[in-house]
Design brief:
Strand order of the largest sheet: 3-4-5-6
Shape: globular
Radius of gyration: 17 Å
Number of helices: 8
Distance between the termini: 37 Å
Order of helices and strands: HEHHEHHEEEEHHH
Structural class: alpha+beta
Helix content: 40-55%
Oligomer: single chain
Number of strands: 6
Strand content: 5-15%
Number of domains: 1
């Protein structure tokens, strides 16, 4: 059931993006290519993200090139959410309340923050600074926009994200919305805390 719903969401999002004509769409990644990316970079795409990339691989500025992209650049992109938060800890005195009392020394604060972030689910770039959590048996996560410690949802799922980012019609069904409850541990706490702090 998870695979079917994830495939439906990812496929619908990919078809919508192609219809909008806002990105070059290349042939989708094969099962072998998807598995190869996951093995090479040490994560598993969420079911909807995997289906999205299998239907068509968006290309051009802002889209990760999972087929021919530079491995160092892709690794940097994968590490950016954690590095952005660590930068905010070091340079902007950011501290998540779930991490306990902030150590007085910046270096100690960064060490504690890094340890907490190491246990957070991997985030995988969708486009620019928009991310989905990794996880083969998961789907319908909110797409997160991450700049420093500014972490906000940019679509309640991949379909809504494409509509929000690229100006598509708001045609999600009630069925789509009913399954869009999943979110990743830690990053969900971040969103809840951020929303309460506003």
């Amino acid at each position: 059931m998870v695979d079917e719903l994830g495939i439906r969401i990812g496929s619908k999002a990919a078809r919508l993006l192609a219809r909008l004509g806002r990105a070059e769409i290349r042939p989708g990644l094969s099962e072998q290519e998807l598995t190869g990316v996951e093995a090479r970079f040490g994560f598993a795409f969420a079911a909807d993200h995997r289906a999205f990339l299998a239907v068509g691989l968006p290309a051009g500025g802002g889209w990760p090139d999972w087929r021919y992209g530079d491995a160092a650049l892709l690794r940097s992109w994968l590490g950016r959410p954690v590095e952005d938060v660590l930068f905010a800890v070091a340079e902007a005195d950011f501290w998540h309340p779930g991490w306990g009392t902030r150590p007085a020394r910046q270096a100690d604060a960064a060490t504690v923050a890094r340890a907490h972030l190491a246990s957070a689910p991997q985030l995988v770039p969708v486009y620019s600074h928009r991310y989905l959590p990794a996880g083969r048996e998961t789907f319908a996560h909110p797409v997160l926009s991450i700049l420093g410690a500014d972490i906000v949802p940019y679509g309640y799922d991949l379909i809504d994200y494409v509509q929000q980012e690229f100006g598509g019609p708001q045609d999600s069904t009630e069925e789509d919305r009913q399954v869009a409850d999943a979110t990743a541990t830690f990053w969900a706490d971040f969103l809840t805390w951020s929303n309460q702090a506003e």
